[in-house]
Each structure stands twice: as structure tokens, then as C-alpha cells.
Specification:
By secondary structure, this protein is of the alpha/beta class. The chain has three domains: about 70 residues, no CATH class; about 60 residues, no CATH class; about 170 residues, Rossmann fold, CATH 3.40.50.410. The chain is built from eleven helices and ten strands. α4 packs across α6.
């Protein structure tokens, strides 16, 4: 019975995984999912799911399956003239919330977007874990059964019991003879990684634009945390001036005024120089804006900062331009013009929530 329950549970998880993957674009655009995020899982609403099984009708009910049948016979019970519109006494389809771990969610995201695994650099502060086989024990999965130790134990038992025949040396292990490899989990140094989020909070960035940034940042975090054992996040907001803030402030700040993008890039470069050595850290700056910069001169400053300080130090620099009715949208064109051949700088136009999934694939599809 327990084996059947386990099989049903595995089948159920496979169905859930398939449903999520099938509707991934819809789930990605739902900001409320982020609000439901627990310690290590989110609740995802899915249509009622049943494990496939046979359902038997009453005897002598007629229809196909009871005798030979004729073309046009109804399948099972039911009035072929149904649909009169009267109130029914049966329940309709309901939604069920299924808890999905962040690890599972990241795997589904990677499969759905066909994201390559990231090849990190640096091995110092963040800890990963590795299993090492260190001994032998009497219980364990069959995949870890130690053949030589099991054979030796069965031979000793048969000799001591007098059942071993040298002329017919047949060794048959029983349960008590079986020996399995045991393991110990050891901490190992692993790669460091930091995401530096930058967002334009000037007057032209409205609530809708900030919500798009919030949703996309959540999914970027989800994927990168699946690639690194630990991950630091830093947050910078800017209008005409830039400052570092916490996560809550980053997504809830309401500002007005002009925009000087270079102020954010200067602060980003300072953070990298003071806290994150490029030889030991995997650095991912993400900048979101509506593309409306204060002046051509400031755009020139941004280009110089990227070329001289930021791009040489980072794995990947990603610029996401959120469409706004108030922004000029010029900045992404300037970046594309000056960095057309630069593989470590990725740009993406995000015209609405429906474009978030494509934007994530543009940013993370390189595997850097």
C-alpha cells in the first residue's frame, strides 16, 4: 500500500510540475505569487487535479462497454438532451493551492526558458556541500549496496553455519548480509555571487513600471539562487542622485524629478571596488529604467563608466528598459550603438508584464 501511495505522490508531483511549466508565462506575470512567498516555498493555484484511475458505473446501465453497442450510443449515463439551464446540485471546478519549493520553481523556470547552467568563478566565502562516502552500514538504498562486503558477509555466514559447499560454491546473500555505503556531508568553499539592482525612480517611472521590475527581479533572484549556494543582493535607486537602500525601500519608493543615470553607475562601481573583488565574486548588475536620461553628456558619462570600470569587473551587465508613456526610451538605443559587439552587456525592452518571461531569457540565456 505504501508503495502505491509513493507512486501516486510522484505522479501527482509530475502532473503539478507539468501544469506549472505549461502555464509558466501566466505564473511569471502574477505579482501576487511573490507576496505569498514563504521561507522556502510559494503556493501556486492550480485546477483540481486527480490521479488517473478507473471509475466504474452501475451495472446494466447500457451504453458502449455493455455489450456490442451501436453507433451513436451515449458513453455512460446521462440524458442526451441535458442543458436545460436548471440549477444543479453538483459542485463545479475548484482551484487547489499547491506548495512548490523555490528549488523546484527554479528548475521549472530553467526548463521552461531553456536556461543554461551558469559557470561561476571564485571559490572563497560561500559554502557548498559535498557528500563523501566514508564507511559501511547495514541499511541503505540498493543503489549504494557494496557488492564485495555483502558477498564476504554472506560467505562468512554460510561457512559458520556449515552450509557452504566448496564443490558447489554458491553464495546467496540474505537481508542481514547486505552492506551499504554510508556518507558524510562536508562543507566546501563555493563561488561568491552578488546582484546589484539599480532602478530609476524618477517621475516618469510609475507604479506599473515598478511592479514589472519587482516581478522580474523576483524571478531573476529565484534562478540565480539555484545556481549559487549563497547570494548577496544590493539595491540602488536613483533620480538625479543615487543612493543605496534596502529591498523594501527599493520596491516601494515614490520619487519625482529628473534622471541622471550616471549617478547609479558611479555608486555601482564604488560598491564593486570596495566590497567585491572581480577575481573572487560573480557580479551581476541589473539596471531598470524607462530610458529617459537627463542629457547627452550624462549618457556619455554612463558609457565611459561602463567601459572603464563596470564591464571589466562583472560577469554580466543587464539593462532592462520598461516602456513608459512619459519616457523617451533613448538610453537603450545609445547602449546598443556603443556596445553592439560586447557580449557581457545585454539589453532588453520590457513593454509590459507579458514580456517579462522573454526578458529573463534574454538576460540569463547566455549562461554567464
Amino acid at each position: 500500500m505504501s508503495m502505491k501511495i509513493d507512486q501516486d505522490q510522484r505522479r501527482f508531483r509530475e502532473i503539478v510540475r507539468g501544469k506549472i511549466k505549461q502555464n509558466l508565462r501566466k505564473y511569471i506575470t502574477q505579482g501576487e505569487m511573490i507576496g505569498k512567498k514563504g521561507k522556502d516555498a510559494v503556493s501556486i493555484p492550480l485546477p483540481q487535479i486527480d490521479i488517473p484511475h478507473f471509475r466504474f458505473g452501475s451495472k446494466q446501465a447500457g451504453g458502449v462497454g455493455q455489450g456490442d453497442g451501436d453507433p451513436g450510443d451515449p458513453l455512460g449515463q446521462g440524458d442526451p438532451q441535458s442543458g436545460s439551464g436548471k440549477a444543479g446540485d453538483q459542485g463545479g471546478e475548484h482551484l487547489v493551492e499547491v506548495d512548490v519549493t523555490m528549488e523546484e520553481l527554479a528548475d521549472i523556470l530553467g526548463e521552461g526558458l531553456e536556461l543554461p547552467r551558469i559557470e561561476p568563478k571564485g571559490k572563497e566565502r560561500i559554502i557548498a556541500r559535498k557528500d563523501r562516502y566514508t564507511g559501511i552500514r547495514q541499511t541503505g538504498p540498493e543503489s549504494l549496496r557494496h557488492f564485495r562486503r555483502t558477498f564476504k558477509q554472506a560467505l562468512k555466514r554460510q561457512i559458520s553455519m556449515g552450509t557452504y559447499d566448496p564443490k558447489n560454491p554458491r553464495i546467496v546473500p540474505v537481508r542481514d548480509d547486505k552492506r551499504y555505503r554510508s556518507w558524510r556531508t562536508e562543507p566546501l568553499p563555493q563561488s561568491n555571487a552578488v546582484i546589484i539592482y539599480m532602478m530609476d525612480v524618477s517621475g516618469s517611472m510609475g507604479d506599473e513600471q515598478k511592479e514589472i521590475v519587482r516581478i522580474e527581479s523576483f524571478w531573476i533572484d529565484t534562478w540565480l539562487r539555484s545556481q549559487y549556494e549563497g547570494l548577496e543582493s544590493r539595491y540602488i535607486i536613483h533620480d538625479a542622485m543615487a543612493k543605496e537602500v534596502d529591498r523594501e525601500t527599493f520596491f516601494r519608493t515614490r520619487e519625482s524629478g529628473g534622471t541622471m543615470i550616471s549617478s547609479a553607475y558611479k555608486l555601482c562601481a564604488k560598491l564593486i571596488e570596495e566590497h567585491y573583488s572581480p577575481s573572487e565574486w560573480n557580479i551581476y548588475p541589473f539596471h531598470f529604467s524607462d530610458g529617459d536620461n537627463w542629457s547627452v553628456d550624462d549618457t556619455v558619462n554612463c558609457i565611459d563608466l561602463l567601459k572603464s570600470q563596470i564591464l571589466p569587473a562583472v560577469n554580466l551587465f543587464c539593462y532592462g528598459q520598461v516602456e513608459s508613456p512619459y519616457g523617451s526610451g533613448q538610453f537603450i538605443k545609445d547602449l546598443q550603438e556603443h556596445f553592439e559587439e560586447e557580449v557581457s552587456l545585454i539589453t532588453s525592452e520590457i513593454k509590459g508584464k507579458e514580456a517579462i518571461m522573454d526578458s529573463i531569457k534574454e538576460f540569463l540565456g547566455t549562461g554567464k
